[in-house]
Design a protein that fits this description.
Largest sheet: none
Number of helices: 8
Number of domains: 1
Distance between the termini: 32 Å
Structural class: mainly alpha
CATH topology: Four Helix Bundle (Hemerythrin (Met), subunit A)
CATH architecture: Up-down Bundle
Strand content: under 5%
Helix content: over 70%
Shape: globular
Order of helices and strands: HHHHHHHH
Radius of gyration: 17 Å
Amino acid sequence: MWLAHALTLARLPLIAVFFATDRGAWWAVAIGLAALSDLLDGRVARRAQRQRPEPWPSWWHIGTWLDPLVDKLFIAGVLVAMLLRDPGDAALVALVGVRELALVPLVAIYELVRRGRPRLPLKAHVIGKITTVVQLVSLAAIVMHLPGSVVLACGCAILGAVTVAHYIAAAVAVD
């Protein structure tokens, strides 16, 4: 599992690219590398899970919360860098970041309210993974000024809202 965790953590240094370079090819490369590491870490983790030792060591479960956390940090880093470089992209940034803008505060509140009671485990779900992929594609399209950027950003907003609704429904079902 250490390889899956390393692939997940490899996205964090890529955030620096967005603050250290001007918008353009380097940003697109960093987004592509992040998407690739996100794809690979899941495949490596699933393969390792099939070969897992019994009983599972405690560090084995790190990926269930590490991957979604790193995804959020990466997307947030890109969005902040985009706003700093071009405040005119604020509407597109907001559309791409709908999930993070809604979900991060909701998760914090949920964790505080549910302290000491059964909680929904923080882990990636299929809808969240799909949303992350569409976010990364949208960000690359925005960075490269592609014509479909607005449509992709709107798709992110819709998927983000669906993802938030999914997590809320799952959290309510815990009670």
